[in-house]
Amino acid sequence: MTLRKALPGDVRGLYLLEQALFSAENFPLSKQSLYYHVRHNLLYLAQSETGEIAGYVLALVRRKDAKIYSLGVAQSFRGNKLAQKLMALVMKELDSLGFKRSLLEVRTDNPGAIYLYKSLGFSVTKRLEAFYRDGYDAYLMEAKNGGEKLPGTLGHL
Ligand SMILES: CC(C)(COP(=O)(O)OP(=O)(O)OC[C@H]1O[C@@H](n2cnc3c(N)ncnc32)[C@H](O)[C@@H]1OP(=O)(O)O)[C@@H](O)C(=O)NCCC(=O)NCCS
Fold first, then answer.
1. Where do the DSSP E strands lie in the chain?
2. Which CATH class is domain 2-149?
């Protein structure tokens, strides 16, 4: 497995993964949005030895506070700490860009992701009522950057 910055040539694979991960009410990213984010934000991916995109993380950086906008790991690659490593990597990068904290929104019915974020230092600061298209609430979570327990490095795992 290799962790690296996404390139425009990765957009097709990222789009397919995005479609597999998120239903319409969870705002899956379009190809156009993915091209934009590859160019203007932080998008890191994990690529398997066979070239498959196993997971990715996207952080928005053209704002005062960085926001972890999306995180996903393909079903067959889950449970290997890949999400944890992608998150540690992007938080480290945000820290080095000068962002003091990271924000994110997560569905209140996604305990796995909430647990993962808590393990990385995030805590819930607010409940956002009916945030998603299906009426579900989100938690707004926040973490200080620079305090990650994991190394967060690019390259081969
Ligand atoms: C949430 C998601 C990114 C986790 O990916 P992953 O690579 O399997 O996660 P990791 O292996 O790094 O998990 C690290 C820790 O998070 C917690 N965790 C992750 N998924 C969990 C789940 N489904 N249930 C409970 N805890 C979970 C566990 O504590 C885990 O540590 P452990 O394996 O020692 O128990 C993945 O399930 C996914 O892509 N889901 C669909 C999209 C999504 O919900 N994205 C996040 C919201 S935007």
1. 2-5, 42-47, 53-60, 66-73, 101-107, 123-128, 138-144, 155-156
2. alpha beta
In 3D, which of 18, 60, 26 has the Cα closest to residue 43? 60
Nearest C-alpha to atom 25 of ligand 1 is from which residue? Answer: 112
pLDDT in tens, the chain (157 residues): 999 999 999 999 999 999 999 887 777 899 999 999 999 999 999 999 999 999 999 999 988 889 999 999 999 999 999 999 999 999 999 999 999 899 999 999 999 999 999 999 999 999 999 998 888 999 999 998 876 555 566 666 6
Ligand 1 mean position, distance from CA 31 (Å): 25
| Residue ranges of domains in the chain | 2-149
Ligand 1 shell residues, CB under 6 Å: 21, 70-73, 78-84, 106, 110-113, 115-116, 119
